[in-house]
TrEMBL record:
InterPro entries (UniProt xref): FHA_dom (IPR000253), SMAD_FHA_dom_sf (IPR008984)
Keywords: Phosphoprotein
Bias type Basic and acidic residues, positions: 294-309
Gene3D superfamilies the UniProt entry points to: 2.60.200.20
Listed name of the protein: FHA domain-containing protein
A Pfam family reported for this protein in Swiss-Prot or TrEMBL: FHA
Region (Disordered), start-end ranges: 294-315
Superkingdom of this protein's organism: Bacteria
All residue ranges annotated as the FHA domain in the record: 194-253
Amino acid sequence: MAFVADTSLRDRLPEADQERWPALVTEWGVIEAAVADEVILPMARDNPKMMVLSRDNFIDHRREHPWIEDHPERFLAWQMNGDSIAFVPSGVKPEPLQRVSREKEDKLVHAAGLARSVLRTRWSCGDPYCTAAMTRQGELLLWPVADTEGRARCPFCEGLLAAIGPREQTKQLVLCDMAGAELLRFPIEAGVDVVIGRGRAIFGVGIDSLPSPPERHGRISRQHLLLRLRPDGCVTAVDLGSANGTRIHRAGAPPGDGARLEPHTAVTLGGHDLLSLARSVRVYVSGQRYPVGDDRTWSGRSEPPRTEIESEGTT
């Protein structure tokens, strides 16, 4: 038997118990960790006979530990019955990927102390030589980065940003290669269209400007796909007459190439639908709303990815 506790537990104990806690740690061999989950789950994964006693269903860890859903019988909670205690199933069950993303985001936002007010604000870069400042009056498409004092800075030039108003409802989109490797996360805001294409862009993502462009990215048209977030929270996609087309893979549909979008015709994306652009990259709606848990950053890049799409015609 092993006892694992968050290091923050001692601060939440009544004052009298705080004084006793060090002795209990020694007596019971308690393992203290900044995040107990990160100790408990690897221990249980490596020891199939171990049971986990917790009221946490570990939803935010389902991607790293898919075995959790395969063995719900190993997760128990406790229930008081008068003077006795009983162990009961904790309620672990399969969860939709959208909920897994949202749970992970909520914990990361809390742990990082991210200011939601910053993430819910539209920002402008005032440096006339900055890539971001040359588009849409300097309004950023990507998320700002924070300095050590918590101030919002441009992810391209690292200059201080100016708030230009509240950000409307947002959702986060994920761009990945055909094997599923993530390339970029970016927000889409209600009322602000985003275009994915190749080359320079007006307000969108230039695929060939990414640090590691996917194979066959040359098949993507200069203005390939327009994405829009409607006031009702639904994301729509429009193929802009691309040469090699866009296909949609609906959740639950049989495996295959999916259906090709009709040019200049909007389709609504479901939570688990995938768009395939010229069989080069894929796009889907993330369950997360904010840029947490992503090690990549554009900060400090001498040549940041271009994020404005010019009207150069469709190829």
